[in-house]
Amino acid sequence: MKVRCSALGQVMTNSRKKGELSKTAQSYLKKCLKEELYDTRITFSNKYTVKGIEMEEEAIGLVSDRYDLGFLDKNEEHFNNDFITGTPDVITSDTVRDIKCSWSLDTFPAFEEDIPTKDYYWQLQGYMWLTGKDVAYLDYCLMDTPAMLIDSELKRLEFSKGSELTEVQADEAIKQLTFSRHEPALRVKTFRVERNEEDIEAIKARVDECRTYINNLKTN
Q1: Which 8-state DSSP code applies to residue 167?
Q2: At what angle do helices 197-219 and 118-131 cross, to 10 degrees?
Q3: Between the CA of residue 203 and those of 83, 120, 124, 187, what are the distances in Å?
Q4: For the chain, what percentages of helix, strand and coil (3-state, to nearest 5) are there?
Q5: Are residues 83 and 203 in contact, defined by beta-carbon separation less than 8 angstroms?
Q6: Residue 138's pLDDT band (boundaries 50, 70, 90)?
Q7: Contact 189/112 with Cβ under 8 angstroms?
Q8: Helices vs. strands in the chain: H and E counts, helices first
Q9: CA 76 to CA 5: how far, in whole Å?
Q10: Angle, CA 120 vertex, CA 59 and CA 36 arms, to 5°
Q11: Which of 5, 51, 39 shows the shortest CA–CA distance to 177?
Q12: What is the mean pLDDT of the segment spanning 139-157?
């Protein structure tokens, strides 16, 4: 088996019990085995992931505008080695970038100094390993929420309220989900991550542990 870069954070979580994989890692590996045995990919989607997918290309353009990087092409090439597999969002001559579209201002890490989610650190280490890059960037972007999701949010608010929203209430709700009125500098927060060979070696060791766990599941 090979671990997807997007799942490295799950398998790299340390267990409280020495000598065994964490419950988070075990849960991910059981899902992987089910996918293999039943030849079916287990998918998950919610409003956050839908926005991220729908707005990804526009977010790449926003990052380009923010840092005057010229045209950044969305990467479609899939990479793998003997341990991991993944598809970075953007690959340049010397870096990789991963794009995250925040759902709202509340989830946008405007003033954070460290990556808010450790999982993304491991994902970027995987991407750098796969592509041979030494530097990666994690870009959080404040993008306008797609119209279909805004409509769903307005209906949800009306249901919660028990009556139709007033024009003022609807406008305020829309304002909280749209950000194109702001300049790029206020809409992009970037974290720089350097390649760490010790952590890459740790990934190799952990994937080997995952393979042993998977093989034990198959024989039980």
Answers
A1: H
A2: 100
A3: 8, 14, 12, 33
A4: 50, 15, 35
A5: yes
A6: very high
A7: yes
A8: 7, 7
A9: 15
A10: 100
A11: 51
A12: 96
**In the predicted model, is pLDDT for residue 46 greater than 90?**
yes
> To the nearest 10°, the Cα dihedral for 47, 52, 55, 58?
160
Structure tokens at 62: 């926003």
Q: Say if residue 180 is exposed, middle or buried (CB neighbours under 10 Å; 0-12, 13-18, 19+).
A: exposed
Q: What pLDDT shows up at residue 195? A: 98
Phi, then psi, of 156 in degrees rounded to 5: -65, -40
* pLDDT at position 190: 98
DSSP state of 1: -
And the tokens for 27? 């849960």
Sheet containing strand 79-80, strands side by side? 3-4, 84-86, 79-80
pLDDT at 28 over 80: yes
Interval 191-214 mean pLDDT? 96
Count of all residues that appear for the chain in the document: 220
124 near 193, Cβ under 8 Å?
A: yes
What average pLDDT does the structure give for the chain? 95
How far apart, in whole angstroms, are the C-alpha atoms of residue 146 and residue 201?
41
Distances (CA, A) of 138 to 2, 31, 58, 197: 23, 27, 16, 19
Extract the tokens encoding 111. 């003033």
Residue 73, SS3?
A: coil
